[in-house]
Amino acid sequence: MPDLKTLRQGNTGPQVELLQLALERAGFGPGAPDGIFGEKTADAVRRFQLSNGLKADGIAGSATWRALQPYLYGYRTHTVKRGDSFYKIAHMYGTSLRAVEAANPGIDPFALIPGTVLKIPLPFPVVPTSIRFTSDVLYYVIHGLSARFPYIAIETAGHSVMGKPLYACRIGTGKKQVFYNGTHHANEWIVTPVLLQFLEQYAAALNTGSTIGGADASALYQDTTLYMMPMVDPDGVDLVTGALNSGRYYQQASAIARDYPQISFPDGWKANIDGIDLNLQYPAGWEQAREIKFSQGFVSPAPRDYVGAAPLEAPESRAVYEFTLRHNFLLTLSYHTQGKVIYWKYLDYEPLNAEEIGRAFAEVSGYELAETPYASSFAGYKDWFIAQYVRPGYTIEAGLGTAPLPLSQFDEIYRDNLGILVGGMTAAL
After folding, report:
1. Distance in angstroms (rounded) separating the CA atoms of residues 194 and 395
2. Is there a cis peptide before residue 261, judged by omega within 30 degrees of 0?
3. What region, left, alpha or beta, does residue 305 occupy, with left being phi > 0 and alpha being psi -120 to 50 degrees?
4. In a 3-state reduction of DSSP, which class is residue 266?
5. How close are the terminal C-alpha atoms of the chain, in Å?
6. How far is CA 107 from CA 82, 84, 119, 217, in A?
7. Is 368 a catalytic residue?
8. How far apart are CA 55 and CA 419, in angstroms?
């Protein structure tokens, strides 16, 4: 569980954004989250505290954080009382009957037993799109989604250098397995909420028997099993977004960055916290990648482009590699930024239907379908997957600009990529 610090006026950073998000969801919003604990935020905290029987001191300490937890997870619990019904409970919390039913499988709504504890989804999406993502935000989203939608299975596929869990999600029952991953590169973290919003909207469409991106959600669920690792590099993300700003690992990263002063710190950081580029760690031309990157001057741990001492040295890349070996993925999407381009080949490998599927992705997104430039052609996850299985694998470079892309691009990126995310599940393989 996240280590939530006591926050007071004058504090700044991602945990202040998380606090502001929770206050907004609770109905005490201080305005758009900006990560600055000013007078408006202090006033919002006091109003929330008064409403919840807490000392109204305007300081977000442990008691205040505990009271705010439902607004971070997106659900709260309700103990059934005599005379309760799902309809009555849904109305009480301002949510829908279907949402309550979905979150409590196995409970007979016509025979509620007093004392039974129910999970009650709250009337807002779990995935936030107005704050910087961190490993803390990911924790709340992952656990909130699995509570709302019990048919989303969650596992820990491995751990980062700093011991943070690498979450993998599964949804669907079909024999066809596909795999979406994101944020191999720390400063490309905007793709994490893109993947998670798709997961949430897909699950919500299953609840209501509706469509997602024009596709019938129930048919997708029956035909395809989707696996997703939304944040491969949580340590690096925390460094880039400011959640990691002190301590041994921060000092280590700072020392690494000083050897590469031409790269902005921490905004330019793509690597894991040990300075290894996770998307240059896979056993597909790793030696060629080493030669190329060494010739460019990346000969030691660096904010980007250092291949490591050996393939799969980094625990994060090894976790993705081993997770892939345990499954039978017919197609993979690896999300990065930026350029609005889709890369589909590795060397001369041309998996069956890969170019055709890629052209369909380009058509629905407006992105360019392209072959990977030679200098970036080796040791990536997509490269290894294609070489290992000779099946379609794609790197999607979302959005435009310089990473980290601003959240103002989120809606456009999601809109452009919804057809790809659905298309990866419906592709003829």
Report:
1. 15
2. no
3. left
4. coil
5. 39
6. 15, 13, 11, 24
7. no
8. 49
* 259-295 exposure pattern, b = at least 16 Cβ within 10 A, e = fewer: ebeebebbebbbbbbbbbbbbbbbbbbbebbbebbee
CA atoms within 13 A on the CB side of 409: 20
Cα 142 vs. chain centroid, distance in angstroms? Answer: 8
Residue type, 338: Q
Q: How far is CA 63 from CA 11, 19, 98, 330, in A?
A: 18, 13, 32, 48
- The residue type at 415: R
Amino acid at 29: G
Q: For residue 391, what are the CA distances in angstroms to 350, 360, 377?
A: 8, 16, 17
Strand runs labelled E in 133-198:
153-159, 165-171, 176-182
Distance from the Cα of residue 325 to its chain's centroid:
22
Burial of residue 230, with CB atoms counted within 10 A of its CB: 0-12 exposed, 13-18 middle, 19 or more buried: buried
Two structure tokens written together for 115? 């004392």
According to DSSP, residue 265 is labeled: T
DSSP β-ladder status, 75-79 and 117-121:
antiparallel
Cα angle for residues 375, 381, 384 (degrees, 5° grid): 85
Q: pLDDT exceeding 90 applies to what percent of the chain?
A: 97
Q: Which helix (H) or strand (E) holds 41?
A: helix 39-51
Q: Are 314 and 278 in contact (CB under 8 A)?
A: yes
Query: Which residue stretches of the chain have pLDDT < 70?
Result: none
d(CA 376, CA 298): 14
AA identity, residue 214: G
Q: Are β-strands 176-182 and 224-229 bridged in parallel, bridged antiparallel, or unpaired?
A: parallel
Strands (E), 264-404: 329-337, 341-343, 368-370, 393-398
Sign of CA dihedral 357, 362, 364, 365: positive
Among the options 291, 371, 397, 412, which is catalytic? 397
The pLDDT value recorded for residue 243 is 98
> E strands of 280-328, at which residues?
none
Find out whether 74 and 143 touch, Cβ atoms under 8 Å: no
Q: How many helices (H) and strands (E) does the chain have?
A: 15, 12
d(CA 328, CA 335): 20
CB 409 within 8 A of CB 401: yes
φ/ψ (deg, to 5) at 286: -60, -35
pLDDT of residue 375: 76
In order of 47, 212, 269, the CA distances from 197 in angstroms are 30, 12, 25
Is residue 313 exposed (0-12), middle (13-18) or buried (19+ Cβ within 10 Å)? middle
